Structures are given as C-alpha cells and as structure tokens.
C-alpha cells in the first residue's frame, strides 16, 4: 500500500510538472512567435539595406543600435505593467488591472517626448563616439524617419502586456505577423523605388518601420476594444483621468527593468561602437551576427514573458509551489532552445551570414569571413543568453527588479564591456575579442540571477 501511494504521488507530481510545461508553452510560444515576427521587421530592414552596400548597412547598424537602446529602456518601463496586472488578476482585483494598463499608456507618452528629442541628435552622438563623419551623417538621416516609430511601438507593448496577462496571446502573433508583412512590402517599395515609387533607400526603410508600428498599434487596439472579454475593462475609458499612485508604481518597478535591459543592450551597442573603430567591414559583419543572435534571443524572451505572467499569477494566489514550477520550467525551456540555436550557429555559419550580403559587393567575402568567426563565439553564449533572460523575467514576476538591475550593470559593464575592450585592443584579438567579452557578461548575469531565484525564500522575495 505504501509503495502504491508512493507511485501515485510520483505520478501526480509528474502530472503537475507536465501541466506547467504545457501551460508555459501554450502561453509562451505565441509570445515567442510574436517576438520573432517583430524581429522579422528589423531583419527585413537589414536584409534589404544590405543590398544597398557596406556603408549604408554600417550606418543603419549604428542608428538602429541607438534606436533599440532607447526603445528597450522604454519597453522596460512598460513591462512593469505585466507583473502588476498579473498579481492583481491573481488576487481578483480586476479594477487594478485596468488602472495599470491605462497608466502604462501615460508612461509611454511621458517617455516618448524626451526620447525623440534625443534621437534627433543621432549624427552628433555618433560623431562624439568617434564614428566616421559620412557614416554618422547617413545614420542621422535614417533616424529622422525611424524615430517616429517609437510612440506607437511602445504603446503596442503596453496593450500586449494586458492581452498577455489575460492569457490571450494568439492575437499577439497574428497582429505582429501582419505588421511584418506590411513592413516587407513598404521596405521593398520605398527602399528600391518599386512600382513607380521614389527610391528613398535608408529614408524609405525608416518610413516603412514607422508606418508598420502605427498600423500594428491600431490593429491590436481595435481588437482589445472590440473583444467581449477585453472590452469590459474599458482601458481607454476616461483616459484623461489620472491615477498617480499606479503611475508611479509602474515607474518605480519599471525603471530598474529598463535599466537592466539598457545595461544588456548597451553592452551590444557599445560593442558596435568599438567595432566601428576597428573598421567598416567588421562593423557590417558584427551587425549581421548580432541580428542572427537577436533572432534566437526572441524565443527565450517569449518564454521569459510567459514565466513572468505564470509567476505573477501564482504569487497573487500565494502559491509557493506554483512559483517554483513556473520558474524552473521557464529556465529549462529557454536553455534547451538556446542549445539548439548554438548547434545551428556552429554548423552553418556561412549560410546565415551569406543571407544578409550581396554577392556583387566586393567586400562580401571579407564580411562573411568575419561574421563566421563572430557566430562561433555567439554560439557559446547562446546558452547563457537564454538563461539570463529567463532568470530576469521570473524574478520580475516576483516584482524583484532592483537587485537584478544591479547584477546586470555589474555583469554587462563591469565584466562584459571591460573584458571586451581589453581582449579586442589590449590583447589584440580584434572583433573576436569583443564577442568573447559579450559572452563573459552574459555568463556572469545568468549565474547570479539563477542563484537569486533559487534562494528566493531565504532572501524574502516570497
């Protein structure tokens, strides 16, 4: 009898974990798909701009790195809506769910104005960072069109957070796929002057991105306002009405998230600036390798968002076992996927880099050779990258943001950036040394964040 009871307990325990894995996949896969579709928009830009030549590609890499730096910090602010809304839903405080979404959109408005003023100065910023004047000028012109995508894109993130907390993630995938298709069409038409349109090159890519961001926001907002489960929240009802306690709660929780993301992305943006010091060809190859790494990163990021929601709901219910299952499941799925991505990077690097280049360009063989060496290192840190994004998100589900932010700053800048500079310039490893520095920063953050989640009860996080 004791043996039978033990077997049943083991089966029940396994069933609980299987249900958690299934729930995380059902929630996380559409989010991951939506993240990949979002990256497809930027990947399409890089693919088409790459056919304009090495210098336009290098300029777009610099401009986009600055844009994504600003965008991701803003998205970190807005991500605070997710744990707040998820915990409120777990505690059945539906009115607070609505308030968090509305004030999240207020935060978007408050952030976008100064951010766009900063982006208008892209050329001056790049010159200050030591970039070539002609490339800095081209990058600045591109940013003058791209920057208008920021407000609708961040507002879309706010609505997506709400829809995700309501566990209706399929619509995120379909709306983002529609946006990717629209962007590909406008990119082709406006960059190359197809179908009688003017050939605008980089300006066309920026206009296409802005039009796509606006259309995507309109689509998901219309869905939210019309769907019977979501419209009862009336997220735009009395939009002018302030709720400053919720507004500042979002800012208080969100700025460490934004700074944590900024520390990570700043590591990559800083590496792009340093790669520009090495040469135009390494910079172009660096941009392509980063784009490949960013694509794979979107999948564990999607799983991590699912982990934030699952843990937030369990936290609201006071379910400590549920918190543990959700966290470890998120980590396992994220690292498992990145192991597969690392194998792809190791086995077919020439194919991946070659997809972003033009065979008629005389610099193409050098770009491919440099890109292959960068992807070899990127394959190593894929595992750490998946672990750190998953760990950061599950801690976020516990509303733990300040210490993870400090870990990120120490890891990415104290370890990663300093080692990247030393290996690239002091040790003479060049671009490969930069990439090994990136890997070290990811490794530091992943180990520290996983340790913090493992000790969550002793640290008083739950």
UniProtKB/TrEMBL annotation:
Key words, A-Z: Antiport, Cell membrane, Ion transport, Membrane, Transmembrane, Transmembrane helix, Transport
Transmembrane feature ranges: 21-41, 61-82, 103-121, 141-159, 171-196, 202-225, 246-268, 288-313, 325-346, 366-384, 405-427, 433-455
Any GO molecular function: xenobiotic transmembrane transporter activity
Coiled-coil segments: none
GO cellular component terms, semicolon-separated: plasma membrane
Membrane topology: Multi-pass membrane protein
Entry's localization field: Cell inner membrane
GO biological process, one term: monoatomic ion transport
Cross-referenced PANTHER family: FMN_FAD EXPORTER YEEO-RELATED, MULTIDRUG RESISTANCE PROTEIN NORM-RELATED
Name assigned to this protein: Multidrug-efflux transporter
Species in which this protein is naturally found: Breoghania corrubedonensis
